[in-house]
Design goal:
The chain is mainly α. It has helices spanning 18-24, 35-40, 44-60, 65-78, 82-94, 99-105, 116-131, 136-142, 148-171.
């Protein structure tokens, strides 16, 4: 379901309190503060704590940036988050995904673009979305090349972006100008 208007509109930076500036002030992407941050700043305590976790997932994750973006994009696609999809198409390209690969993420593990390992990542995303559980078959396949840390980061990456998709969709966070 898509909202016509935001339920919680992004807060213009000129209206931020000093506390809000302290929490979000340095959070820019491509030179601008994204609408996700301008929306979450309505609840600065939540935003401050969420940013710690989100920063780990996006910047300190033990998965490669390419594999992380495959997981994020697949999760965003499955959750129907236009905002997440739009942001991470750009981030995914920066991480080395081609336009054809990004399009193939919509198809998932059945697309012919993927290595065996990447197919398993996509299947894990699908299983976590549908069943909230990674099957033994997919787990065993992934652990042939992934450490325990990488497995945990994969699970928490999918969980973080599924949760974020629910917030983005429910709050009605509008697309940023540079991803329209």
């Amino acid at each position: 379901m898509k909202l016509e208007q935001p339920r919680v509109p992004p807060l213009d930076e000129s209206d931020w309190t000093p506390e809000q500036i302290e929490v979000i002030g340095r959070q820019t992407m491509r030179g601008n503060v994204p609408n996700v941050f301008k929306t979450l700043i309505h609840h600065e305590k939540l935003a401050k704590r969420w940013l710690v976790f989100a920063t780990h997932i996006l910047s300190k994750n033990s998965m490669s940036p390419r594999e992380r973006e495959i997981a994020i994009l697949r999760t965003g696609w499955l959750a129907g988050s236009d905002y997440e999809w739009g942001q991470h198409v750009i981030i995914g390209q920066d991480a080395g995904l081609t336009p054809d690969e990004i399009e193939a993420i919509k198809t998932g593990a059945d697309a012919t673009n993927w290595s065996h390992h990447e197919r398993l990542i996509l299947r894990a995303c699908d299983e976590l979305h549908k069943d909230v559980f990674i099957s033994d078959e997919v787990w065993e396949g992934l652990t042939e090349t992934y450490s325990t840390e990488q497995m945990m980061d994969l699970i928490f990456t999918c969980g973080q972006y599924r949760m974020l998709a629910g917030a983005l969709n429910s709050l009605g966070v509008p697309l940023d100008e540079d991803i329209r």
